[in-house]
Amino acid sequence: MQPLGKYFIEVVKLFINPIIVVTIITGICGMESMKKVGRIGGKALLYFEVVTTLALVIGIAVAYLVKPGAGIDTSGVNVADVSKYQNGSAVSMMSFFRENSTIQFLLGSILAGLLLSRSVHKATVLAKIQWAANYIFKALGWVMKLSPIGAFGGMAFTIGKYGLAALLPLGKLMLCVYITMFLFIIFVLGAVLRYYKISIWKFLRYLRDELLIVLGTSSSEAALPALMTKLEDMGCHRSVVGLVVPTGYSFNLDGTSIYLSMAIIFLAQVFNVHLSWEQIITIIGVLMVTSKGAAGVTGSGFIILASTLAAVKVIPVQGLALLLGVDRFMSEARAITNFIGNGVATVFLSNQESLFDRSKAQERLQ
Question: How many CB atoms lie within 10 A of CB 136?
């Protein structure tokens, strides 16, 4: 059973660097065009960074508090020589960059994106990159259709090796993720709306049809056009909606941020890898970059998680086989939280710019 999960992870890893290149370059070029829009673009980027960073920190804090990964005995397994990861804190900064292809691709993509955004050939090159991205994501979609086989192999191996007790931490992680995201929506996003005297419960009821679409498809992109229409109907100005919602789908991923940070700490606990403060800060820093982009693509959260583990080189990437079986359920929670987060961001920024029709909102949300 082990090869089914193992080789699926190996194939997924092939997509990491190409996806980093296309999403980071197109994302940076998108940021540059947002800056040209002026004040709204700047405020949107600042809002996205603050809220997603808060989501990352909350995810890490809850994972350390609840310890969902404690309890699986992995002492008998040789997962890419776990011991070398447990002693990973002794790695120098120079060797970290030299031996880490993912970090090299990450930094190279950021540099390429900055250079391209100032190039006269930006439109031509960007069109070719987006063409390539389209095929990369199509191929990823085909590979992710095999995820049930990978999940079957990964779960069968895990339960066969460690017994049914191995399912308990996975269930604990899933429950943890759902509860954390629910509390994040109610208290953090709810507080943002409450600042402008809007009830989060009325807002969720207003978007209930779109939320069901997101739940059914596990993709927040499926309901993007409907979300934009609904936000305009409730009083958000068209210019703000047209700018914030599409950009938020790449840069404002609250649910993905919570899931990624919790999943990484979960795997660290499973393999008994003790993370130093420096490593935790590095993980947050890498996640702040890798979590931007590839939203709405099936399996993108899994790819981002793999790329982050490959970049940080502290936790075995092969440990992802443990998460394969529950990733589909996690995907639904991620998509719903991302979707609500983008709706709240649009309402917040419309109010900030005094481009919000409160009478329309009262009529729609009553």
Answer: 18
| Higher pLDDT pick, 186 / 244 | 186
Does the pTM of the predicted model rise above 0.90? no
pLDDT value at position 121?
82
Give pLDDT, residue 84: 43
DSSP code, position 315: S
Contacts for 203-210 with beta carbons within 8 Å, 24 or more apart? 203/343, 203/344, 203/347, 203/365, 204/340, 205/365, 206/230, 206/234, 206/364, 206/365, 207/339, 207/340, 207/343, 210/339
Q: Which helix (H) or strand (E) holds 135?
A: helix 122-144
Closest CA to 189 of 140, 248, 272: 248
Query: Mind listing the domains of the chain with CATH numbers?
Result: 38-92+164-365 (1.10.3860.10)
Q: In whole angstroms, give the CA distance from residue 120 to residue 111.
A: 16
pLDDT above 90 as % of the chain: 15
Would the CA dihedral through 134, 102, 247, 112 be positive or negative? negative
Cα 164 to Cα 159: distance, rounded to the nearest angstrom: 5
Instruction: For residue 122, count other CB atoms closer than 10 A to its CB.
Output: 15
Using pLDDT thresholds of 50, 70 and 90, give the confidence band for residue 83: very low
